[in-house]
Design the sequence.
């Protein structure tokens, strides 16, 4: 092939990037901030391995979801809705909606905390502002299509990365300690709880559902001639987007491990922000708060998009995104109005999300391994085996969490 032809293919591949960056926003939402900062502040480098493993799992899972949308021209919820009887389908929809609601809860609360840190806006009013701004972002997608929406979200992702990684350049982490943190281990029940929360914040169920829709809406159903090129571009898209998200997640934990370890009152985002300001200066603290705000604004918009995809596929009904935004805004505003600890609500929402992961992963593994659905693009036995191992690990971690939290007090 000529150099001109290779350049044309490369340029076309770059133009196809975008859907994975929208899905990746789910992996750097305020729930991640709470779980990762808490993990680093309490246990230092101990849980680095959890984030590394979770991000590797996430990259593989998100590619499978995107591939499903490209090959079939259908979203994952649509494919499930076609194959399930009414009762199981509605039950599956209910748990998927609860997962989406837990996600939205974290995103609204996180954005409200950011506005409080930046402008001392009361949390309830801040949550309302975040909800309104997210409506504007959703309106951008509805009116102008997916491409401008992707561009705005990618810009917010860049702000998020700068906001959460800037502090590492001022006070770098210990390289040897990072390597030590790659050894899988726990330190008591609380560390398992945090690991489950970090996993739930990293491998996001609603992102699994929505990525198939994002890929389908961008590319349509692939033809035999275009399929190989689209899947190749999708691999690049996922590698870059999830790579950035993974670096940001690990960076947040390292930031806390270096600057917050052993410091009191860092179990909340507000306390962590104050400690970061004391250790690294007001400039880094300001950038951190801006990154948190960008995280809340971007991720809540993607969460609403995911919820609409889930409902359309499983219930065969559509409600306006704005109406959906108002409905899902209410639980977060209630929590903020009642004065419940927002950081605790964030962490617990991520633990809840981790229990929703198997319900998204198991059908994804079955669908992408089915030749009747995927044709020649069905997963090989090796890839299918790796995906099954991921499902087993996730379920095992959740069972361990249940066992430790329920039975350890009885034993003790």
Sequence:
């Amino acid at each position: 092939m000529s150099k001109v032809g290779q350049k044309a293919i490369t340029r076309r591949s770059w133009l196809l990037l975008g859907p994975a960056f929208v899905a990746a926003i789910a992996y750097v939402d305020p729930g991640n901030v709470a779980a990762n900062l808490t993990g680093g502040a309490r246990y230092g480098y101990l849980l680095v391995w959890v984030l590394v493993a979770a991000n590797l799992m996430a990259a593989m899972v998100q590619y499978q979801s995107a591939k499903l949308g490209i090959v079939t021209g259908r979203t994952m919820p649509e494919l499930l809705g076609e194959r399930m009887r009414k009762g199981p389908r509605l039950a599956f929809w209910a748990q998927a909606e609860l997962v989406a609601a837990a996600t939205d809860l974290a995103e609204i609360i996180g954005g409200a905390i950011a506005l409080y840190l930046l402008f001392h806006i009361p949390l309830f009013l801040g949550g309302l502002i975040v909800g309104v701004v997210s409506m504007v972002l959703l309106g951008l997608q509805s009116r102008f299509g997916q491409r401008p929406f992707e561009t705005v979200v990618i810009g917010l992702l860049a702000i998020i990365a700068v906001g959460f990684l800037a502090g590492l350049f001022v006070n770098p982490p210990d390289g040897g300690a990072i390597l030590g943190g790659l050894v899988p281990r726990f330190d008591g029940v609380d560390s398992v709880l945090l690991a489950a929360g970090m996993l739930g914040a990293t491998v996001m169920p609603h992102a699994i559902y929505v990525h198939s829709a994002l890929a389908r809406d961008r590319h349509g159903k692939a033809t035999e001639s275009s399929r190989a090129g689209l899947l190749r571009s999708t691999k690049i898209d996922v590698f870059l987007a999830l790579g950035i998200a993974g670096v940001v997640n690990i960076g947040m934990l390292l930031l806390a491990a270096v600057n917050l370890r052993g410091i009191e009152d860092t179990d909340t985002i507000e306390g962590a922000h104050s400690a970061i300001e004391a250790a690294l200066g007001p400039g880094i603290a300001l950038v951190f708060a801006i990154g948190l705000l960008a995280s809340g604004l971007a991720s809540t918009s993607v969460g609403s998009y995911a919820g609409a995809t889930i409902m359309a596929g499983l219930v065969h009904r559509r409600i306006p995104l704005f109406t959906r935004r108002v409905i899902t805004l209410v639980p977060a505003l209630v929590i903020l109005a009642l004065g419940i600890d927002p950081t605790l609500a964030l962490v617990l929402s991520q633990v809840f999300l981790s229990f929703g992961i198997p319900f998204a992963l198991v059908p994804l593994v079955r669908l992408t391994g089915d030749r009747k659905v995927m044709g020649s693009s069905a997963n090989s036995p090796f890839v299918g085996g790796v995906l099954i191992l991921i499902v087993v690990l996730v379920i095992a971690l959740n069972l361990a969490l249940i066992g430790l939290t329920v039975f350890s007090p009885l034993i003790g």
In short: The chain is about 85% helix and 0% strand. The CA atoms of residues 369 and 379 lie 5 Å apart.
